[in-house]
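INFO  loader      accepted 1 record
INFO  loader      residues=156
INFO  predictor   begin
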Amino acid sequence: MIRSVGFFALLLAVACGGGSSESTESAETSSGGEHHGHHGHHEGHHEGHEGHGEHHHGDFPPSVDAFHHAFAEQWHGDRTAPSVCPHAADLQDAAEAAVEDQQAAHPEVTARVSQTADTFVAACQAEPEGGEAFETAFSAFHDALHALMEATRVAE
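INFO  predictor   done
INFO  writer      dumping tokens
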């Protein structure tokens, strides 16, 4: 009996914990809203942030890539207001640089980035210890970044 329980535990561990991206995606989706469910580039996206190495999204304009990199450090780190909000001004600066660079080509998307950046900074000022406004604003800012990335992606 013990031997069959041990075999079952080993089988379960291999089936569930073999480093599959499904368990990672599930954890990220539950902790970050609808982060990866609709982007279709989860694996390259996550790997690029983990090691801050090569990104696998296609190529972006330098300002969008810089915004993406700055945001990734916060999104994939300790995603709490006390950890993230001290970087709010830097994230807003990176967003503004990308907006300025891409505004003529993508006015609706860049307007969304600007609006969500402003809302995020305001939420950090109002809730530096966190709360629903911070969570909502950080998630919306993240979604706006990805909309900008999708709009400016150069096919691989």
